[in-house]
Structures are given as C-alpha cells and as structure tokens.
Amino acid sequence: MAGQVVIFALGREEYGMPIEVVREITRLGEVRPIPQAPDYVQGLINLRGQAIPLIDLHLRFGIPAPATEAGKPGGQVNMFALITEVYGNLVGFAVDEVREVRVLDDVLAPPPLVTAPFIGGIVNLPDRIIMQLIPERILESDEVQGLTTLI
C-alpha cells in the first residue's frame, strides 16, 4: 500500500491522504454555516464559484481541537482545506497544517486495537508516525449524498 500522499497535521498527529484523491490544497477563508448539518460539517467554502462542503476532521475523528491561536482568522484552528473527491463529489477536509507531499513506503496494517475504519495503514518513520487514511471511509456514501442535498 505504498504511494504518494499529502501529509497533514491535526493537532500533534500526522495523517496521510492519497494524492490521487486530492484535487487541491487551499488556505481557508470564510466558511458559511449550513443549517441542520451534522456537527462535523463546518459549513460551505466558495472555491472559484463552487460551494464545497467542509468537514472538520477534529470532530469527525473525535479528537480534541487544540486551543485557538492568536492571529488566526476568526479564531479558527483549521487553516487549510484538502479538496478531495469522495464518491464522485468534491468535499473539503479542514486540517490544521499541510506538511509535505512524499512517497510512503513500508506501510503496515494498523495494530488490532486501531479499529477506526478510515485508517488504512501506519508508517513508522524515525521521528514520527503517520496514519494513512482511506478517504472513502471518512464519510459514507449516504453522508456525502446528504451533504450535496444541503447545498
């Protein structure tokens, strides 16, 4: 399961998203809320005239967001969006920082206690661990369809 990935941070943890599903990396601007959307949906972002739902991966993964830092717009923690294609629809994943694009070799299966369905593998580097994600398992097909009906 080696391949080129976009490595990003959520708090102190690092994740890898397969580059073939990442259409664009953009700095977050204004996010418009969507009434009655699930709590993990931050809202909509405007990308060259197209409204794209933005998913807060902190909430989706159930990990605490770090405290907001001074100087970040609106006090938001997430500074970037990975615009990806999931089930044929564009979806933005809000992340704190995009660190690098690199080829990850020696991807190991997650240990048995790691039961999150969206983690496809673990890469042990000398100074850090990167969890490789399976984008189609971050959101179910019906969730993506539900988001497109909210727009």
Give an overview in words.
Residues 69-75 have low confidence and may be disordered. The chain contains 3 helices and 10 strands; from the N terminus they run βββββαβββββαα. It has a 5-stranded mixed sheet with strand order 8-1-2-10-9. Strands 3-6-7-5-4 form a 5-stranded mixed sheet. The chain has a single domain (3-150), classed as Beta Barrel (OB fold (Dihydrolipoamide Acetyltransferase, E2P)), CATH 2.40.50. Helix content is 13%, strand content 46%. The chain has 151 residues and is mostly beta strands.
Query: Structural class of the helices, strands and pairings?
Result: mainly beta
What is the number of beta strands? 10
Computed Rg: 15 Å
Order the strands across the largest sheet as they lie in space: 8-1-2-10-9
Question: Which H/E pattern describes the elements?
Answer: EEEEEHEEEEEHH
Mean pLDDT: 86
Please work out how many helical segments DSSP would assign.
Answer: 3
List unreliable stretches of 5+ residues.
69-75
CATH superfamily: CheA-289, Domain 4
The amount of helix comes to 10-25%
* Number of domain modules: 1
Beta-sheet strand percentage?
A: over 45%
Report the top-level CATH class: Mainly Beta
Q: Per CATH, which architecture?
A: Beta Barrel
Principal-axis shape equals globular
CATH topology: OB fold (Dihydrolipoamide Acetyltransferase, E2P)
**Sheet with most strands:** 5 strands, mixed
Oligomer: single chain
Terminal residue distance: 35 Å
